[in-house]
Structure to design on (269 residues):
């Protein structure tokens, strides 16, 4: 097989959660550009209009579906809708997530539950709902989206870091469960990328300069930096890769992150 063909997703059906903006929107478009038809989800279908138009412009089929990953019934309904429409799901990008930035002493019970219910419980039950049909079919790709906080700690991110560390461990467990059935499960862990969740940090030019100096490649990530890793994990190129956490972080985790954590502003909201 020629090398480029193993990255071709033509004929594949992908499901991307949290696809209305940011990383999820980029992931959905990248999969479509590689040939996949894409089901995209958010809590409201109206928020998916822009993503849907962009996928259609790439010549791929698209299905917007309402999904709240904190609601078990919503998960079951959304996955059933996608399966009924496309017949199957070949690739799941488990991206929906949230964050509430606060010092650890100010984190409330509800803050903790909101973050963990979305970032960890939601990821598990979406994977379970899609995994049932993948296991039955004997094939499938599940890509759980983590972050650099899977392996490093930062001030103001206690529940978020706990949720992402949990995603790393969950990925390994699901890989062990479903590997014998031909389903691979991996975690794609971005480093420091500017999104709506952390945009306030990037308003501090001094901090961005300090961050860049901590990254061996000397800059925060750009969305296109994630495309190759995503398509690799979604395609036949990763046939023998499962249970892994792939850090796309510019090398920041090879450095001592404690100094960065000490200088990272803690912003509420």
């Amino acid at each position: 097989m020629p090398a480029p063909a193993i990255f071709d997703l033509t004929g594949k059906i992908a499901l991307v959660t949290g696809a209305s903006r940011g990383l999820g929107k980029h992931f959905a478009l990248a999969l479509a550009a590689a040939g996949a038809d894409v089901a995209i989800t958010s809590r409201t279908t109206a928020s998916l209009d822009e993503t849907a138009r962009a996928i259609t412009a790439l010549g791929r089929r698209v299905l917007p579906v309402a999904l709240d990953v904190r609601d078990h019934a919503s998960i079951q309904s959304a996955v059933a809708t996608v399966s009924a429409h496309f017949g199957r799901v070949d690739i799941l990008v488990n991206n929906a997530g949230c964050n509430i930035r606060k010092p650890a002493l100010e984190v409330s019970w509800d803050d903790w539950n909101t973050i963990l219910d979305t970032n960890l419980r939601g990821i598990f039950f979406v994977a379970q709902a899609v995994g049932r049909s993948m296991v039955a079919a004997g094939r499938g790709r599940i890509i759980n989206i983590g972050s650099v906080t899977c392996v490093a700690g930062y001030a103001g991110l206690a529940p978020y870091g706990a949720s992402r560390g949990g995603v790393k461990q969950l990925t390994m467990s699901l890989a062990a469960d479903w590997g014998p059935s031909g389903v691979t499960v991996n975690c794609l862990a971005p480093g420091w990328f500017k999104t709506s969740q952390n945009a306030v940090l990037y308003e501090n030019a001094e901090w961005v300069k300090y961050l860049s100096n901590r990254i061996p490649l000397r800059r925060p990530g750009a969305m296109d930096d994630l495309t190759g890793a995503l398509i690799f994990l979604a395609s036949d190129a990763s046939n023998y890769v499962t249970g892994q956490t792939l850090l796309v972080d510019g090398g920041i985790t090879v450095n001592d992150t404690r100094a960065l954590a000490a200088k990272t502003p803690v912003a509420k909201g």
User: Anything to note?
Assistant: The chain has eight helices and seven strands. The mean pLDDT is 92. The longest helix spans residues 109-137. The radius of gyration is 18 Å.
